[in-house]
Amino acid sequence: MSTEAVETPIHYPFPWTPPMEIPGALRGLREKAVVTVTLPSGDKALLVTRYNDVRSLFADHRLSRNIARPDIARVSKDNDLFMDPKIDPDPPHHTKVRGLVTRAFTARRVEALRPVAWEIANDLMDKMEAGEKPCNLNEAFAFPLPIRVICKLLGVPAEDMPKFRALVDGFLSISKLPPEEVAASRMGLWKYLDDLIQSKRRDPGEDLISGLIQVSDEDNNRLNEHELGFWTQGLLIAGYVTTASQIGTGTAVLLHNRQMVKEIQADWSLLPTAVEELIRCQIMGSSVGTMRYAVEDITLEDGSVIPTGSSVLLSEESANMDETVFPEPFTIDIRRKENHHMTFGAGLHYCVGAALARMEIQVATEGLLRRFPDIRLAVPGEELPRGLGGFMEGFTDIPVTW
Ligand code: HEM
Prior knowledge:
Blueprint: E1 10-11, E2 34-38, E3 44-48, H1 51-58, E4 63-64, H2 93-104, H3 107-130, E5 135-136, H4 137-142, H5 144-154, H6 161-171, H7 179-202, H8 208-218, H9 225-256, H10 258-266, H11 271-280, E6 291-294, E7 298-299, E8 305-306, E9 311-314, H12 316-319, H13 354-371, E10 376-377, E11 399-401
Parallel strand pairs: 1-2, 3-9
Antiparallel strand pairs: 2-3, 4-6, 5-11, 6-9, 7-8, 10-11
Bound molecules: protoporphyrin IX containing FE (HEM).
C-alpha cells in the first residue's frame, strides 16, 4: 500500500463563497510557487501563484500561447475559446501583428472616446431614471455601455448591436450553452465581422477597423484577411465582456461597502485609485484566459520546475494577492497608491485595451455615483448570483435602486 498522502484536487476557477469576497482559496496559496489544478473540463494545469514568477512568465518566450494543440489542457469541453490553428500567437510573428494593432489603437483614439463614453453613460442613466426601480444594473448600464463604446470604436452600426451582443454572448459560453449553439454563434459572429471588414475596405471611416486595414496595407508585415478578422473579433470580445463585468461587479462591491461610496463622493480625486483597486481585486473572474504551454523546462524563483509540455495558467488573481507586493492584499483600499496589479496581464500579451477599459470604468463609476448619489443594492450583497460557467464570473443580476 502506498504511504504517499493523496492530495485533494484543487478545482479551478476557485469558488466564490461568499460571493462578495475575494475567493478564500487565494489565501495562503502562494506557500507553493505552483499548484496543480483541475479545470471544468477535468483536465489538469499548473497554476503559477507568486507575483514575480507570474510577471516574468508573462514575458517568457518558453511559454507558448498557441493553445490550438492537442496535448494542452482545455478549460471547457464545449468551447475551444480563442483557439485558431490558422493564427500564430507567439513571437516573433505575434509581436509584429500586435504592433500594428497598437499603432491603430492610439491614445488619441482612446481619449476621443471619453466624451462618447460620457454621452452613452448619460443616455443610459436617463433611461434608468425614466424606468422602473429597482433595475438590473447589468442590463440597464454595465453591459450596454462597453458594447456601445466598442461598436463605436470598431465602427459597428448602432442598429446591429442587439444581434451582435447575442452572438458575442453565445461565443463566450463555457458550459452555459450546448456546443451546437456555441458553434452557431461563432460562425455567425465571424460572418458578421467579415462582412463588416469588407464594407470598411470599400468605404473607410474614422473607426479602428478602418485604421487597422490602413496600417496593415501600409506595412510590409500586413495582416492577412484571416488575421484581420481574428484581431477584430479579439478586440471585440476581449473589450466587451471583461469591461462590462468589471463595471457591474465592481460597482456592486462598492455599493455593498457604502462607506467607500461616501468617501469617494466627498473627494472625487479618490475615483481613479478606487477604480484601480477594484480592478486589482479581480472580482469578476479568474485567469482561465491565460493558458500557456511550456515548450522548454522553466525554473521558477524558488527552484520549482515547470516541465516541458505542461499546461500553465498564470494566475493574475493570486499575483494580485501576493503579500510581498501588496500590503494587506485582501483589504479593498480605495487609497492604495502602489498598485501594479496584473489584471491586464503583462509582457508579450499585455492587454492592448487597458487604457480604454480604465477610461470606461472610471466614466461609468463616476457617472453612477454623481447622477444617483443614493444608489444602493436593492437586495443584500451576499444574495447576488454569480454567472458560473461563463468566461467571466461576475454577478449576473444586480438589482439597484436610488
Ligand atoms: C477590465 C477590462 C479588461 C481586462 C480585465 C482585460 C484583461 C486582459 C488580459 C489579462 C490580457 C492578457 C491575456 C494573456 O496574457 O493571455 C488581455 C489581452 C488583450 N486584451 Fe484585454 N482586458 C480588458 C479590456 C480590454 C479592452 C477594452 C480591449 C479592447 C478593446 C482589450 C483587448 C485585448 C486584446 C486584443 C488582448 C490580446 C493582446 C495580445 O495577445 O497581445 N481588453 N486583456
